[in-house]
Amino acid sequence: MKRRDFLKQSTLASGMFFVPQFLKAFESIPNKTFGNKKVVIVQLKGGNDGLNTVIPFQNDIYYQQRKTIAIQHNNILKLSDEVGLHKNLQPLKNLYDKGFVSIINNVGYPNPNLSHFRSTDIWQTASDSNEYLQNGWVGRYLDYTKSNPYKAIEVDESLSLMLKGKTQNGLAVTDPKLLHRYMREPFFNNVIKNYNDAHLSEHNLGYLYNALIDAKSSAKYISEKSNPKNTSATYPKNIFGKQLKTIANFINSKLETQVYYAGLSGFDTHANQPNTQARLLKIYAESMEVFVNDLQKNNAFDDVIILTFSEFGRRVQQNQSNGTDHGAANTVFVIGKNLKKQGLYNNLPNLGNLDSRGNLKYEVDFREIYATLLDKWLQIDDSAILNKSFSKLKFI
Q1: 242 shares its domain with 104
Q2: How confident is the model at residue 6 (pLDDT cuts 50, 70, 90)?
Q3: pTM, two decimal places
Q4: CA distance 350 to 352
């Protein structure tokens, strides 16, 4: 095969060839065997409005600043005398009432960026707001532990920055059987057969060959290990429900994966926020309850922590389009069976002390949550992954 032909074919990097994300073969043995603890990360993409999700219904400022979009008392699921959940989060409240949910308020970082893309990069790389990293914090976890790539799986068609390391990437996949079948196509087999082609080696393309071999191996492992029969639960018929069903299948099939990543899009509610957010919160909560119950039924929930975040919150004051504009600090949900602090983890947002742009001030650095998960749950040196030391929280 000619070099230019190979390069032309490998431009599938943005599509199917990139699905395995230049994996290391599963035959590569990590230096250390890690536990069975798992983290499922869910991003509410677009900037979910935390104030209309976890609602401070006794705060007059909340209603003064949101004349038409504030959630009224009769549509609130009360958690205490001061705060409640949006009514469409009833399935999440069911989990809350079982002691499975910790709500962390005022989560953000110094000098917040209000761009979707940049703020998402900051959350995915665990960088400072003025620091630009080319690898994600989960990717660095793979690098540091010398883990197999399927230790971190994103249920999507392409891999996010979060799962890209310096030397190792995670895996992006939506259908393990299809991935395995695709990797057995003649083109890929022909490339592998030409591994020792001197011309390609001369141009430093041997890495691509190794990556392709690794991809086939990992696709085979996931396809053979996962069994759809390991989850019989009925999930909501939407993309997010399908993502969680796939993750449940992988967990119930006892894949060695430790980090999963999924997302629910549509939360950029500059206009007509009440209807849009209500619909999306219902999708999130219904899917999450089925997911947790599925894991419980298969005795897998004990070893799983679920983290739900959004790249930023919304401004306290509503805009003139019946929506809200990009904000800063926000609410994070942590879901698990053995949380040390259930319910409301910390104080509600201070609506009377906003920043110069009218946004909530952060009190908890999001990297403190990451550090806690790495140190207390995955039992790894968090400072080596996050490039500095952060305080640990007490939810696990």
Answers
A1: yes
A2: very low
A3: 0.88
A4: 5
